[in-house]
Amino acid sequence: MRKRIYKEVDRLEDWKNGILNRDIPDEIGKVKHLHMSGQTEEKFETWKNEWDEIVGGILPDIEEKLFDIEDFAAKNRFNKAKQQLELTDKRLTSIEEQIKTLLEDVHGLVQSEEQNRSEIDVVRVAYKELCSAITKKRGSLGPGLVAFDKDVDKVNQLLEQFDQATADGSYLSAREFLVEAQELIARVETLLDEYPKLLVQVETKIPAEIKEIRDGMVEMEKAGYQLEPFSLLSRIEVMEQELVKIKEALVVLDCDGVEDQLLDLSNRLEQLYDTLEYEVESKQYVQSKLVELANQVEENQEKVEQLASETVDVQKSYFVSKEQLNAQKQIKEQAHDLTNQLFVLSDAADHQKQTYTSIREMVDLWQNDMNKLAGEIESEKETLFALREDELKAKETIQSLKQIILETHRTIKKSNIPGLPEHALLQLESAEEALMRATEQLSEIPLELGRVTVLVQEAESIVKKNQESVFHLVEQADLAELVIQYGNRFRSRSQEVANGLLEAELRFRQYEYEEALECALQAVEKYEPNVLEIVKGYMPV
């Protein structure tokens, strides 16, 4: 513990000596090259006194503390020694921070003097050029000229304050005056370029646009346009009030955001132009469109009457659902409503009861409703046509099913099989009955196509399944007969073969063709494993 404490004392001693040996006086001495008066002289004395206090008072005191710490360690008073080590470390750290601040202040003063010396000529030239530029543009600065002159006077005042502060040795204060003058010159130079453009918009361009809109409104109202619903006058008055505030801001050169405000005003004025132009365009649109709509009403009325007539004709032969008749009733009512609505639109346009923009919107909505109604009429016509089309399709399907039944009977007759098993006869009978039910339903008047469609689909399913079943049965019978015939050559070789073929013949005569084929195959495959493939080769494709 004692060794560690001694080691820490050595470190702090080295640190103290390092501070003591630094060339701080030389750094402070750089200030002597400046004009030693006023602020510079005061700061020099302050920094010199701070350093003297560190060297002559604080560091010697730290030296004594380090001796005390070694004494505490020698007497095994380690806790006391450690506490003093921590306090000494903090004092040295504080001295480092104090020296750092001192040097930054010294360097700041010296640099301020150097920067002031190097920049003052540039600023003076910029000031002269600014004065010249304002003199040339005085005629375009309007109400802002007084504010520009005040800013120029302010720059001149700052330069005079700079000269006085420099003469007094107050380089930091002089620096502040010079920087403020630089910033003010830059701001005025920017304003000098932008201000005339903003002033032209505020005093000439935008007021001219507002006047043009007002004049246009007067002419349109004389022509009978209803512009009051657009609230154009109140919107213009709001913009004029905003323009007054912008002018007031420009007088004191408060130009921040003015360009955006003027752009917003221009956009809003453009919207007013668009509103008036669209109103004029809407009048032409409405006047031409109303003629077209009147023709559409006549055409639509003819289509509604034609639909009603076709429905009456269809009802003579077909069953038309209640829902479909209600739909046609609604179509007729909608056609009547649209006709009345068109009268209202025409009256509003003829007597200029509202804006043409709003009438145009109503016309477009009316057109959409009319298009929708026309689509519904076409849909109903297609539904009526579909009734007849479905009837023809049902008749074609029934005719095709009858042909399938005939083909099935021919297949049975040509096969020369002994007969059909009971389940096949029942299935064939069921197919013929289903076809008969569909045929009878199709002959009823009025024709209920929904019921017809169900029965035809049912008959189609049963007839086709029956056809497949009969074809399969005949095929099994033919195969059974061929296998029995082929197996006769092996009958004498084995009593088992003879018995199997006998069983197959018995089942064949009982119309059990699949069982007969199975028995014959079991009897013959012992001597001819590929007998089924062989006899299939004898069958016609």
From TrEMBL:
Superkingdom field: Bacteria
Keywords, comma-separated and alphabetical: Cell cycle, Cell division, Coiled coil, Membrane, Septation, Transmembrane, Transmembrane helix
Short name of any one Pfam family annotated for the protein: EzrA
Coiled coil: 78-105, 255-310, 363-390
GO BP: any one term: septin ring assembly
Cellular compartments annotated: Cell membrane
Protein's membrane topology: Single-pass membrane protein
GO CC entries: plasma membrane; septin ring
NCBIfam families, sorted: PRK04778.1-7
Protein known as: Septation ring formation regulator EzrA
Lineage: Bacteria, Bacillati, Bacillota, Bacilli, Bacillales
